[in-house]
Amino acid sequence: MTSLFPLFEPLRVGALEVPNRLFMAPLTRCRAEADHVPGKIMAQYYAQRVTAGLIIAEATMAMEGNSAFSTEPGIYSTAQVTGWKAVTEAVHGAGGRIFLQIWHGGRACHPLFNHGAQPVAPSAIAITNEEVHTPAGKKPYVMPRELRDDELPGIVAGFSKAAENAQAAGFDGVEVHGANGYLLDEFLRDGSNQRTGPYGGSLENRARLLFEVIGAVSAVWGADRVGLRVSPLNSFNSMSDRDPIGLISWLGEKLNACGLAYWHVMRADFLGEQKGDVMSAARAAYRGVLVGNMGYTPEEAAEAIAEKKIDAVALGKPFLANPDLPARVTAGAALNLPDETTFYTPGAKGYTDYPAMNG
Question: What pTM value is reported for the model?
Fold first, then answer.
């Protein structure tokens, strides 16, 4: 029987010392109030889950006008900063640690959520294998507009300002969202980036925007309070790359110089279409804290940590449905099953009403 002890060893994550290696992965839950402002129910939700070694809060709009979910939170307005401050105070008051994932939706944004504005992307290539959830039902994604090179400094500045606002809101750090077919990932992978010039073509050029964002955000926080999430295999949002193993190896080598708190790697594909061992490639290339994500059981994660294949695991749905997940894992208790019909619906049902083990 696999020992679960490795999950509960403390870990130095950049500037933080965390008490265990069970991290809460970022999960879009669509519970923000009007104007993308976090409300009281979000503070309750995150405070329920403070026994995670680190909470990584959900994808949050770095700048206005780039909504992909209609009711996701933002971090660009004073009201949003105030709303998030109530969340961080609740988490810290209960003894937890929380990073904010900052994000630009890129071509996954929709005019219905953005006053009719056309979404932007590295290239004018639309998402075709998904549909967007709207109040009027599922709708197809629209063709994005290709960003000009001279617009990209504004994107970097938007992430920098979001980082400043996350500091003002009391977070412990930020995670740059470079995964799942959103803007930074769209630039990184060659299936969605077919531009020429300094931000297209070679892997170094395709990664340029990502590293500019990492640099700007690190200048605000210090790199030891910045994480990065990537998904080299995920085909969600019509994403692909001709050489995901080469991409992850190159990225890991380059990230060694950045001094980040951690690198968060999604190891699989939501749709099961693209396969490969990206975690071994990431571990071989990267010398910092490596966080594995997607489909790990506690037993598999403990074994991977013991064998130094990863340093921590980020769990999504298990934390969604089990606010006291570390205690349940320790006790060998049964887990609540997540109610997928409530993942993106408003209110407490399927959000803050999952019972604790002794509840």
Answer: 0.98
